[in-house]
Amino acid sequence: MKKLSVILLMLSLCLPPLALAGQKKNPLEAWKPKFDPSGAKYTYLLSTVAHPVIEGAAVGYRIRDKVWEKSGGQLYVDFRPLGQMGGEKDVISKLKMGAIQGMLSSSVAAANISDVLGVVNLPFVIDTFDKLDSFRATPEIWEPFANGAQKQGILVADFTGYGPYGWATTSPVANLKDAKSTNFRIAQAPVNTDVYKEWKLKFTVMPWPDVPQALQTGVISGLDHTAIVCNISKKFTIAKYFTELNYTQGLYVHLINRRWLKKLPKDLQEVLISVIEEESAKTRKLTRKQYEEEVANAKESGVTFLKLSDEDTAELKKGTEQVLDKWGKKIGPDYLKAVQDNLKS
Question: How many domains does the chain have?
Fold first, then answer.
């Protein structure tokens, strides 16, 4: 009996820590709604693979709260970040079928839906924050993009962003000679593949979840992405150098299933679209600020920022002429020319 009492006492002391160890902290706890959505008549399921610490993704929560307020609690935006609904290719399929009603798709993935959506990924076309704002504010070039996936049953409502693209690398890339000895991870997107082939750089197409281990093991030595994402996702703990190419802007394109939207009462359609547009515009300004903050934070933590020479940049631009010609035929040469003409600096 004494032995049994000792065993029971030990178990009572050990069980609480073990139970606590099994409880994982909810990373989205801070973003829970301050209202009870159970009484909503309609639900808009909105997915993204991004983390809401990125302003361009956090817009989903701001849309959620504002739509709830303006709809009088009739429409609930059930925002699911961090890939809760699956990877982007899977979610795009679900979006087309209507299993998911909305998606904040990365711009590189959006090009898989429609060639027209690939225009925002083309190198040195929409490559600055100012050009991005002009693109959105000019109906002549915005509307063809917004309607570019209509045949697939998808409407482009708006977009936010995650900053300009560059190279995060494990060794410094200060020129094209350095770049040619680097193996870059690029996204699973047709535009990116064409660009790197024309640049004659070594690359590996790789899903985002595989990147950390690939960097650690040396499978890749460079990462084609933005400073915002690389700093927030801790990629700079391994890749301590960032070459500021600024050849394109990373976007979260807000896609909506058209069939579902049309079934929504007219007044709620207007509420949803107007809120998406208002909050997306505000978020684009926040993204500029976040970019400056994350670059400053990265530099402070020891990341070295580099830029290519004018000559090397000119060589990259020349190397993309074939890409622009190829994709111009896909998205429409007149449309691409209109975008380029309107955004000339």
Answer: 1
Residue 236 identity (one-letter amino acid): F
Taking the CA of residue 224 as centre, how many other CA atoms within 13 Å lie in the half-sphere pointing to its CB?
Answer: 28
Q: Supply the CATH number for residue 229's domain.
A: 3.40.190.170
Whether 23 is covered by a domain: the verdict is: no
pLDDT tens for each residue of 58-92: 999 999 999 999 999 999 999 999 999 998 999 99
Q: How far apart are CA 123 and CA 104, in angstroms?
A: 22
22 in a domain, yes or no? Answer: no
Closest residue by Cα to residue 345 from 140, 34, 182, 125? 125
Q: What is the pLDDT of residues 83-114, one digit of tens each?
A: 999 989 999 999 999 999 999 999 999 999 99
Cα–Cα distance measured from residue 205 to residue 211, given in angstroms and rounded to the nearest whole number: 10
CA distance 50 to 231: 14
Beta strand 184-186 with 222-226: parallel, antiparallel or unpaired?
parallel
pTM summary value: 0.90
Residues in the chain: 345
Instruction: Report residue 177 as tokens.
Output: 């000679």
